[in-house]
């Protein structure tokens, strides 16, 4: 998606340690017009599929998923939570995810009420690096007996391999920008053609 | 807002300890059509004001704020973050907030790049109880020299007093449903008339 690649080139910052900061428009400050265009792109890609629910993970995926939902007939958006809170009762699917950004493991939970065997789920997230968060969401769907119809990602760091592993496993992964390489010294970013 | 009150009555659950669970449609599973109607209601209420930015706090406020932004000329949405992460550099406004839900204090941060003296800010959140989170957001705006033009809340727990304290301080608080009392024994919920 050229619009997203252009924004990443213009406003993204490459940092040491394989970090790509896009917090100007994606995951701290949010450009909702861009989100809307991203939703339209995923709707086009997944047009042949029946999607009954969008599943994402807090926090950065939520805004993207909610705006994308408007391109999928306003299906419900469920966001998996990263920590136990007194507002969630005992009836949950739980898995554990290692966060590249936070460099630690954390539990990821979703209420059994909001993920069911009849659901055809589109997973949405802002970033795909090694794929740990997505494998967590897939595991939650498996626990519920829900079908993962596809995976919509804003920025895939292709060189970390998580996206290609998911494709090898048979998942339909639509990443709107795939970074093939990036250089913290020059700030240069190359996208998959 | 009758639609929201009806949903709370129908799908909300009153728990011991002043907890109102609305995770069926507001803050775990998200009804984006409802969010859209909430955004329209705030746009009507704040019609006389110039809003250049929406500020919310992760995680539950993000989806609501992003959809509401579409009713305010697609202004940028910034979400304050609840913990330090390696993706945020040193240039941040920081404050501390006590969470009623999580029953502990946590730092709340926003990058100085995304909150500025020229900003006219609408604060949006899913819940207003004692007002601690909102006072944190207000404090971030004060640090930046940004003007708080108003506060849009989905569910205010009126009996906890935070909303009325903010109104006494002169803030224009538009809560779409104000719970005046609720009873965990009977499940009954009374709204401010």
TrEMBL record, chains A, B:
CC terms in the record's Gene Ontology section: cytoplasm
Gene3D superfamilies on file: 3.40.50.2020
Spell out the subcellular localization from the entry: Cytoplasm
Any idea which positions bind xanthine?
20, 27, 157
Please tell me where 5-phospho-alpha-D-ribose 1-diphosphate binds in this chain. Answer: 129-133
Which parts of the sequence belong to the Phosphoribosyltransferase domain?
A: 41-173
Q: Which GO terms describe its biological process?
A: purine ribonucleoside salvage; xanthine metabolic process; XMP salvage
Q: Which Pfam families match?
A: Pribosyltran
Q: Which GO terms describe its molecular function?
A: xanthine phosphoribosyltransferase activity
Q: What is its EC number?
A: 2.4.2.22
The UniProt catalytic activity note for this protein reads: XMP + diphosphate = xanthine + 5-phospho-alpha-D-ribose 1-diphosphate
Q: What class of enzyme is it?
A: transferase
Q: Which keywords does this Swiss-Prot/TrEMBL entry list?
A: Cytoplasm, Glycosyltransferase, Purine salvage, Transferase
Q: Which InterPro entries match?
A: PRTase-like, PRTase_dom, Pur/Pyrimidine_PRTase, Xanthine_PRibTrfase
**Pathway it works in:** Purine metabolism; XMP biosynthesis via salvage pathway; XMP from xanthine: step 1/1
HAMAP family per UniProt: XPRTase (MF_01184)
Give the family from UniProt. Belongs to the purine/pyrimidine phosphoribosyltransferase family. Xpt subfamily.
* Cited function: Converts the preformed base xanthine, a product of nucleic acid breakdown, to xanthosine 5'-monophosphate (XMP), so it can be reused for RNA or DNA synthesis.
Give the record's subunit note. Homodimer.
Query: By what name is this protein known?
Result: Xanthine phosphoribosyltransferase
Organism classification, top ranks? Bacteria, Bacillati, Actinomycetota, Actinomycetes, Bifidobacteriales
């Amino acid at each position: 998606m050229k619009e997203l690649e252009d924004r990443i080139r213009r406003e993204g910052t490459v940092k040491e340690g394989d970090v790509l900061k896009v917090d100007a428009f994606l995951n701290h400050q949010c450009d909702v017009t861009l989100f809307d265009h991203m939703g339209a792109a995923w709707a086009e890609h997944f047009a042949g599929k029946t999607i009954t629910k969008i599943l994402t993970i807090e926090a950065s995926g939520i805004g993207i998923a909610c705006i994308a939902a408007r391109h999928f007939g306003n299906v419900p958006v469920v966001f998996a939570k990263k920590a136990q809170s007194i507002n969630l009762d005992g009836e949950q699917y739980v898995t554990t995810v290692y966060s590249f950004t936070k460099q630690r493991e954390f539990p990821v939970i979703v209420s059994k009420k909001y993920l069911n065997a009849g659901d055809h789920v589109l997973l949405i997230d802002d970033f795909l690096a090694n794929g740990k968060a997505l494998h967590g969401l897939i595991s939650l769907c498996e626990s519920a007996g829900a079908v993962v119809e596809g995976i919509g990602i804003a920025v895939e760091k292709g060189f970390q391999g998580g996206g290609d592993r998911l494709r090898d496993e048979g998942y339909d992964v639509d990443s709107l920008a795939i970074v093939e390489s990036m250089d913290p010294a020059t700030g240069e970013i190359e996208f998959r053609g």
